[in-house]
Design brief:
This protein has about 650 residues and is mainly β. The chain is built from nine helices and 38 strands. About 10% of the residues lie in helices and about 30% in strands. The chain is elongated, with a radius of gyration of 31 Å.
Length: about 650
């Protein structure tokens, strides 16, 4: 098996790693290292990056031909790792390594991270001369903490005539070292290749090997997922080089009509729906109703299926008093633990080219807005770099980030994202609507909004953003409206993000307007938010115009739980393999459709656990029976073998 070698800037390990710069060679401080020596570049590189130090008090000698000791080589890896000496004080655990010596912390670190082991008699033999096979084993163990060491060119080791002399405990390490070009052999007098496992390793040889390791091996990416659920919405956890299964977007299935917006104050439109769950568990769907005026209203439901129009105290479901006609308003219940209880119901509305406003409910029930506390949190386009806020702007308290996050409306023209009001009014058909992200610690003082970026690279009109946090995983999901001028049409896309700035977005609409006559008026303005209405389904909502009823009607759309994207079999025996992961749990659950074989391996290719999942389940759970007990904090990889099946998510519990 071949490994592609690439340049590396930083080595990742189980502790914060020392940043290793490029291999530029600087001044030579060593009087015993000639510029013509084969090891010159490696020695200077190792010295400049703090891996090796001089051997005399003045630091002027490197002693390139001196044999490395076991303690010295362990110390070089300790320096590379960036580990803190203060974290490894105390008893080392070996009889012949006392506390407080220069070698103590490095050896303690190496033992605790499975980089070194003792001599089987309670000692470490720190001053023992380092053989080439001992060096290989120590570096192999170190590398296994931060990369996959199971892939290499096996044929190279087989070409050494003295391979039988390699100690059994060192065979895997020597195979790896030679197989990726870190350890080169010598040629004997009769022309055969020798690996020389029992020969000692000099300081110059060690410096050369470490330079190769640091500058030629690409860094492994280790993702700490712990017990967090992982969806296949992107390649965050996927090793694309070892995966051939297709990545598909989920399907939204249209279900029944749930509610008619047929009140007199809804006669023209009912739009910009968004879902809030009240403290009592009731779901509220706020929206803007229009006749001659604009009003904010809500309907409510206990189950996400049956919706009713409540009485907010004035004989209607309207929450805004006469005289207040907002173009849009997003309502959310603030779960920030530091939020005053009388400020938890918040509304956010924007005025075209005039700013974004935060408004607090006039009661503790969310039944009334306007006439109370109101704060302008964003200013005009000149001060907000082209934001206009004339759509439904969404806002949340993000517990994971410890911040408020918001997604707002902006305008741009090509690469100009700072359009003035005059420019927009002069060339209205030239501008493109966009979505921008901003964040805040207190919901009042916000960062300047920055435009979202999309995986598909298209610069489409994004009329609404439809973004909501997904409570089963640390991602956000959006059902934005794509708007086209000529011919005029709207459609709903799906997009997901982990960092809230970079989004995976599909190019094929997941919902298209059923009523062409009203498509330009936003039949594909999806309700913001979702409700889990069954064990295996999520319900999303969309309003559309009904010609027979002459009003807007609310429809339900369902998608599989976690089913925004999936990895599915392209053909028999297709595979999904993860990156190196650190995990935490005693059981494993998989959301899958069809037969799936799951295999967990360590970085050396050892199978730690495997299981076959059959059928169709959103929560197929298997006990790990202690298989990963000794691998907490250590990287593993998971391979899913798919046979005409799909996987949607997994989680360690």
């Amino acid at each position: 098996m071949k490994r592609i070698l690439a340049l590396m800037l930083c080595v990742l390990t189980v502790v914060p790693a020392l940043c290793i710069p490029s291999s530029a060679v600087g001044e030579n401080p060593f009087i015993d290292v000639s510029e013509t020596a084969w090891y010159y570049d490696a020695v200077i590189y190792s010295y400049e990056n703090g891996i090796f130090k001089g051997t005399n008090t003045q630091g002027t000698l490197f002693s390139p031909d001196r044999t490395m000791s076991r303690a010295e080589f362990t110390t070089t890896l300790f320096r590379i790792s960036g580990a803190n000496e203060e974290d490894y004080k105390g008893a080392v655990g070996f009889d012949d390594v006392p506390e407080g010596e220069w070698m103590s912390a490095p050896i303690k670190w190496a033992a605790e991270n499975s980089v070194v082991s003792g001599n089987g008699k309670g000692g470490f033999n720190p001053t023992g001369k380092l053989s080439r096979e001992q060096l290989a084993v120590i570096l192999y163990n170190y590398a296994a903490n931060n990369r996959d060491v199971s892939e290499y060119d096996e044929s190279i080791f087989e070409g050494f005539s003295d391979k039988a002399s390699v100690s059994e405990w060192a065979v895997d390490a020597i195979r790896w070292m030679t197989g990726i070009g870190l350890l080169n052999g010598t040629v004997s007098a009769n022309g055969t290749a020798l690996v020389n496992p029992k020969k000692t390793a000099t300081r110059a040889q060690a410096a050369q090997i470490l330079k190769r390791y640091l500058s030629e091996l690409a860094p492994a990416e280790i993702v700490n997922i712990g017990s967090e659920r992982q969806l296949f919405t992107d390649n965050y956890i996927v090793n694309t080089d070892k995966t051939d299964a297709l990545n598909d977007y989920g399907t939204f299935t249209k279900m029944e009509a749930l509610f008619d917006f047929d009140a007199s104050w809804e006669s023209t439109d009912a739009v910009y729906q968004n879902i809030v769950q009240a403290p009592d568990g009731t779901y509220r769907m706020y929206y803007k109703a229009t006749d001659r005026y604009r009003r904010i209203c809500y309907i409510e439901s206990k189950d996400g299926i049956n919706w009713t129009r409540p009485d907010t105290g004035n004989g209607t479901n309207v929450v805004t008093p006469d005289g207040y006609w907002p173009d849009n308003m997003f309502v959310f219940y603030d779960t920030n633990p530091n939020c005053p209880d009388n400020e938890r119901w918040k509304g956010v509305y924007g005025e075209w080219a005039n700013g974004l406003y935060l408004i607090y409910a006039t009661d503790d029930l969310g039944n009334g807005f306007f006439g109370g506390k109101e704060i302008r949190i964003m200013n005009n386009p000149t001060q907000t770099r082209g934001c206009y806020f004339d759509s439904l702007n969404t806002m949340y308290w993000d517990e994971t980030r410890g911040k408020y996050v918001a997604f707002v409306r902006g305008f741009h023209y090509r690469d100009d994202y700072n359009l003035t009001k005059e420019e927009v009014e002069t060339f209205p058909d030239k501008i493109t609507r966009d979505v921008r992200y901003m964040e805040s610690d207190d919901c009042i003082n916000w960062s300047l909004p920055v435009p979202l970026t999309y995986s598909d690279g298209n610069d489409w009109q994004m009329y609404t953003n439809g973004i909501t946090p997904y409570d089963r995983a640390d991602i956000y999901v959006g059902l934005p409206t794509k708007f086209i001028y000529d011919p005029m049409s709207t459609s709903t896309l799906i997009m997901t993000s982990r960092d809230l700035k970079n989004w995976e977005r599909n190019t094929t609409p997941v919902i298209t307007p059923p009523n062409v006559e009203h498509a330009v008026h936003g039949d594909c303005f999806a309700c913001v938010g979702y409700i889990q209405t069954a064990e295996d389904e999520l319900s999303f909502y969309m309003r559309e115009w009904d010609n027979d009823k002459d009003c807007m009607v609310l429809y339900r759309y369902v998608i599989r739980l976690d089913g925004f994207r999936s990895r599915g079999a392209l053909f028999k025996d297709s595979t999904v393999t993860t990156k190196l992961l650190t995990v935490d749990g005693d059981s494993f659950e998989l959301n899958h459709d069809g037969n799936v074989k799951m295999t967990v391996k360590d970085t050396k290719g050892k199978v730690l656990f495997e299981n076959i999942f059959t059928g169709d389940s959103v929560c197929d759970t298997v006990q790990l029976d202690g298989a990963l007990e000794n691998y907490k904090g250590k990287p593993v990889s998971i391979t899913f073998d798919l046979d005409n099946s799909r996987i949607y998510s997994f989680k360690f519990n």
